[in-house]
Specification:
four-stranded antiparallel β-sheet, alpha+beta, five-stranded antiparallel β-sheet, Arc Repressor Mutant, subunit A, globular, Jelly Rolls, 2 domains, 16% strand
Length: 299
């Protein structure tokens, strides 16, 4: 599932790497995962919960939990650690729900993750021992300050399958005339129930989420196909009219599709479906160097 490029993935019992997320479908692995959004925003689905992570956010994902990641309209840069912390069970909880003590641990978490990547990237003398030390410190921090308090509900799998099905339908049919009432009818559920369920799990109404998805999909055509008419782009991405497309676009991006095209016509976007795009190492170093203990730097 991961794009194994450069030497940024540790091919041993742990992985620490930087990547630009585009879209990575639902998957799981036998390791805990720690995500640090260094730049931009990404959307993360864990089981049947969907979270929007912004720059500076950190998220923990317990091992074996199905999860998926997807970019928003912004460029992003994410530092990811995968490691099996023995005896640790982490809650997938956004920073806003952390306790004050846990929030005070955020700088230390970023420091340790920054050092893990730095050691892996430069491979100075005894870098493996240094990584082992940083992993041990991180594990102790998790055990002491982030004990799991939420058990997985017995209906989690069924709920996850339903949410994954709804998101898959949006992915496959966003160009069509799709509605919540139609999906509810196809699944033998009431529209009112499905509406409440979707809003509770995603944090957005079905119509708004569908509109945002259509808008995100339209960005590639706007940037990469300068000769394609705005009306064709609107209809190809499920909007009933150019007026509806322009209205939604201006509401979300504070500009018209034409203005966006003029700004972004020279930018090459990553093809949807590629899990991770290339990494701007210069930017990454600029963002993580402030978190490093200068005595550990090997320049």
């Amino acid at each position: 599932m991961y794009l194994l490029n450069r030497a940024e993935i540790l091919e041993e019992e742990s992985r620490i790497f930087a990547h630009c997320v585009t879209q990575c479908d639902l998957h799981h692995h036998d390791a805990h995962e720690c995500l640090w959004v260094v730049k931009g925003r990404i959307r993360v689905q864990v089981m049947d919960e969907i979270l929007l992570l912004q720059e500076g956010d950190v998220l923990f994902i317990n091992k074996a939990l199905p999860h998926a990641t997807q970019s928003t309209e912004e460029d992003n840069l994410v530092l990811c650690l995968q490691y099996n912390f023995v005896g640790v069970a982490l809650d997938t909880s956004p920073i806003k729900n952390w306790s004050l003590v846990q929030k005070n641990m955020l700088p230390e978490i970023k420091r340790l993750m920054a050092h893990l990547w730095w050691e892996q990237h430069y491979k100075a003398d005894h870098w493996q021992q240094a990584q082992a030390s940083f992993l041990a410190q991180l594990g102790l921090l998790f055990v002491r300050y982030f004990p799991s308090i939420n058990a997985i509900k017995t209906d989690s799998l069924e709920s996850t399958l339903l949410m994954n099905d709804l998101l898959r339908q949006i992915t496959l049919r966003y160009q069509e005339h799709i509605s919540l009432s139609l999906l509810a009818e196809e699944r033998g559920l009431s529209e009112a129930y499905l509406s409440r369920y979707f809003k509770a799990k995603v944090g957005e109404t079905f119509l708004r989420y569908l509109t945002l998805y259509r808008l995100e999909k339209s960005l590639s055509d706007l940037a990469q196909k300068p000769k394609k008419a705005i009306s064709d782009i609107a209809l190809d991405h499920g909007f009933p009219s150019v007026k509806a497309f322009n209205t939604a676009f201006r509401r979300e991006y504070d500009c018209t599709p034409t203005e966006f095209r003029l700004k972004r016509e020279s930018i090459t976007l990553v093809n949807v479906g590629q899990a991770y795009a290339g990494v701007d190492l210069v930017l990454l170093k600029q963002r993580i160097v402030p978190w490093l203990d200068k005595s550990f730097l090997y320049l």
